[in-house]
Specification:
This protein has 166 residues and is of the alpha/beta class. The protein has helices spanning 15-25, 34-51, 56-61, 67-77, 84-92, 102-110, 151-165, and strands at residues 5-9, 31-33, 95-97, 116-121, 143-146. The protein is 48% helix and 13% strand.
Length: 166
């Protein structure tokens, strides 16, 4: 059985890139962005009429401009079960990309939903988020992937993590 992974970090720090690299190393792993996964369930019905999006892709691409709203809508979706989204996503996927609530992460940890939790850091290029849209911090994770250099360097770090966890 494949391990279940969480790939976390601030906006634009390279979480999807790291998940793709992880998938290159372990091709049987499946993943999708948690934002894409939950958009239809909790975000689209509220933000589409509010901002007049014509397509779901338009809504998804504009999420960077509404991080706090997305965070609140996802938090609402995860009430009262703070691990709801992660449990649903992991039924079909092996990698959860983008969890942003520390309370939700703790609920997932309590249920042992993840075997490995990675933090992706690109802070030399992109500023961290405020707690209005991300309450998880690197210390909440098992490993920190420094994504400030080349993709080759990021891949080397992932290979090191794989050696430790396998």
């Amino acid at each position: 059985m494949e391990k279940k992974w969480a790939v976390l970090g601030f906006a634009r720090h390279g979480k999807d890139t790291v998940a793709s690299l992880l998938q290159e190393l372990l091709p049987t792993l499946r993943f999708c962005s948690s934002s894409e996964f939950v958009m239809e369930k909790a975000v689209w019905p509220i933000l589409q009429p509010k901002y007049g999006y014509e397509t779901k892709q338009q809504c998804f691409e504009d999420r960077i401009n509404h991080r706090a709203e997305w965070y609140q809508l996802i938090t609402g979706y995860n009430s009262p079960d703070k691990s709801k989204l992660a449990s649903e996503l992991l039924e079909e996927n092996d990698i959860y990309v983008g969890l942003r609530s520390r309370e939700e992460l703790l609920a997932c940890k309590e249920k042992n939903l993840f075997d490995v939790i990675l933090w992706v850091d690109r802070s030399k290029h992109v500023a961290p988020e405020t707690e209005a849209s991300c309450t998880i911090r690197p210390t909440d994770c098992d490993y920190i992937i420094d994504n400030n250099d080349s993709l080759e360097e990021t891949m080397k770090q992932l290979k090191l993590v794989l050696r430790v966890v396998e």
